[in-house]
Queue: 3 jobs
Job 1
Amino acid sequence: MICRDEAIVLKTQDFRETSKIATFYSKKFGRISGVLKGIRTDPKKFASRLNFLSVNEIIFYRKRFSDIHLVSQCDLKLDFDYLKSDILKFGIASFCAELVYSVMPPEDSHPEIYELLLNLLDSLEKTNPSQKLIYNFSLKILSLSGFQPHLESCVICNKAIKKHAFFSNRFGGLLCDGCSRRDGQAENILAGTIATILFLQKSDWQKSLRLSIMPFVERQLSEILFSFLNFHLEKKFKSLKMLNELLDHKIKMC
């Protein structure tokens, strides 16, 4: 089947002596991979250099019994040149691209996540890079993909949480005082942290970025979010250590 779609480059790798395999997140087909034959020896064969997170119009032959398709045409639509010159923006973009690759299964159509990526790239271009972009993107993709933590009530007994609660990676959400004994590693969570996470999950992109987060809430939000990601995705994000170092350096310089 011949397919055409708009797609964002998540990563590329060399394939044999002349070709590349590119992984895209596409608008209609979700995460797809395809081989671009001959692009390394004849770059002019395609109207794109497959730059990281560039937006391309692709035509590919969708194979029924393989998850690597044949890309016959790849035309550049939009390139985010600022990523080449700003290491902090590149770090945030790299983490978010790695998160998309890790969370989304192959060929699971989700146009909202494609738009989420575009919103991130647009905001990175127009605003100063900050951890809020990471929280906003991460919580929204978890919500859209069905991985979000349960924060509306106790995940075990469904009792409403009024003031005091614990957060459990094991159970994937909040525990009340009575159920907290079921997980010895559950941690106290502030009401402000719960409210912030719910707001970021439910509000649109621009409204979420306008939210002011108190420093002590942000520290806990960061700890809980990345602990939750590592626990449920069972992986350490390669880009996260570098990103945290860059953000810490930026804070010290301010």
Job 2
Amino acid sequence: MNEDVFWELIAKLDWAKTGDDEAVIRPVVKALAKRSVEDIFRFHDLLAEKLHAIDGEAYARNIGEDSYRGDDEFFSVDNFLYVRCCVVANGRALFNRVLADPTAMPKGLEFEALLTVPEEAFSQKTKGDEYPHLAEPDFETFANRDGWASSR
């Protein structure tokens, strides 16, 4: 699994099924489940790398109404993660644009379902085995210390 294959899989998301997240991710899950277990884990790690790369204050301040406004204001760490998922889910071009320009972050959009793709693919592949892989790097909000250096 390399970057190109990762983005080819992401491109399989079926946006015609918007409103039914399981249906949107189904083609990716199905295609990933046909690959090796190692590829499923690598897909998860590549996803984690992308989410980690755009975990930072500059990105969080540009997600619209729910933007980060400082430590004294409420900020949903989960929502910010789901917005970052939306960036990745919308493909390589948007990811690269956002990476270069945090003001290009989507406003008021999220796609939490992307996080379930590796586990669902693994479950299909192994007929229900428990998912054993912990993706690296940590992609939870505030995990990218360099991205939050000025505010933390």
Job 3
Amino acid sequence: MRLHFVSISIIMETINKGHIQDDILASGVTYASYRNHIDDLLSENKTTGDDHSEDMIAYTRMNVQRMKRIDKTAVIASELLAQLSHLKQPQTWLVISEAWCGDAAQNLPYLHQMAEINQAIQLKIVLRDENLELMDRFLTHGGRSIPKLIVVDSSSKEVLADWGPRPAAAQTLYNDLRAQQLPYAEFSTALHKWYADNKGHDLQAELLALLQKIR
């Protein structure tokens, strides 16, 4: 897969957003722990957060299947692989997520595989609804949209950049679908079809541009 650059001005922010506290970073869990936590909750017919309705459980079960599929099929493009491999500055990739979030399920497996390429990158995941003060520092058009990736200098704890909640093209589609006021099933099907067709291409192109910008 060869990356073609896309406009990411809507999604990617590299403005100074201060520092991340040590206690927040310490509370983050690994991708494996996050997945195990979701499985444990589902065994009790629960999901993350306070809403354990049938719909939320169904979304979560579907997201587990999405993550399993992407874990097996994801391919990291050579340009991004090279950029990640040569990264020397230790970074913490802090991701705000929830188990029921479809966009998180579509993007987290790729972020995990990217982080695995270089030991200088440590991926940590925190739950949105348990960290609203953090979430409110990284809103998207005033909303608590997830997933949100926050790239942190591991030494200084300075925020270097952030990305999310979805690639720019997916965000444009999302905005268009919302404007049409489609039933949720149609809305969700269209958005997840975009992800299935895109196969992580735009996410990787945007992460490559982000890393090059903060290099």
